[in-house]
Amino acid sequence: MGLLTLLLVMMLYVMHQVFEVTVNKKGETIMDIMRKVSKDKMIFGGYALQIIRDMLGRVSEIYHLDFMKIRSDEKNEVFYYADDWSAWSIKAIKYPKFNYSDDNPTSVVYNKGYITRKVYPVPVYGAAILSCETEKNINEFHLNSLHNGFMGNLIINFNNGQPTDEVKEEIEMNINEKFSGFQNAGRVLISYNDDETNKTTIERLDSDDFDEKYSALSDRTREQIFCAFRANPNLFGINSDSTGFNEQEFNSSFKLYNRTMIKPMQKKRFVIHLTKSLV
What we know:
Layout: H1 3-19, H2 30-44, E1 47-53, E2 59-65, E3 70-72, E4 78-81, E5 93-96, E6 106-111, E7 116-117, E8 120-121, H3 129-147, E9 154-158, H4 165-179, E10 200-204, H5 210-228, H6 247-267, H7 271-278
Antiparallel strand pairs: 1-2, 1-6, 3-4, 4-5, 7-8, 9-10
Helix pairs in contact: 3-5
């Protein structure tokens, strides 16, 4: 065994031992923390760690903080953590920024990368956030149409004057109760009228080819999302408009995706803060 090979084996052994070190009372290892950090880095573009010191000022525990629940001041010097920022009464915990030379019993390591919106990071798919939101809303539109029995393209006219608001609410509630929902799709609407003059009429709205428009919009937003991730849809089992996708094209697409997307993410050394904190 050559000296270089021996040194490499020893280094891998030491790294393995370091990654298996327990870093908090939950029994989590550095590798466990790194998995959570990697997920936050991919979703939000940044991550946060809670650092706890012992009575002697040494780093004793490290916890991952859900980046979605973290807020920061303008200078990224003070951080706030709350389980629900939409609550009427927010109970946020205040943390100072981690500094190796200070003696704060608990502090936060905050990483926002190089691409930021001043205070907060921008994820790798930042250019496609609106496309992701559009794709989500398209799916919700179709889901709501299904739950509403595809009745959104009908107008029911009661031609007998304007009732009071209470009566309007009661009529709307009764109709929604009887005809809304995917299980009631295609049922017949029955109307009882005093005479033909004040009969209830139903008008069908012109759909304007909504299905085709939504399909075209969905294709466009999906294309923008894959473009933001520098990915070929065929790699994920989504057929494109091309005539085929052979093994050579697959390998070339994978190598390109690996070089432009995966490896740059792998080179981001999330473990640096962790190993420094354990010194």
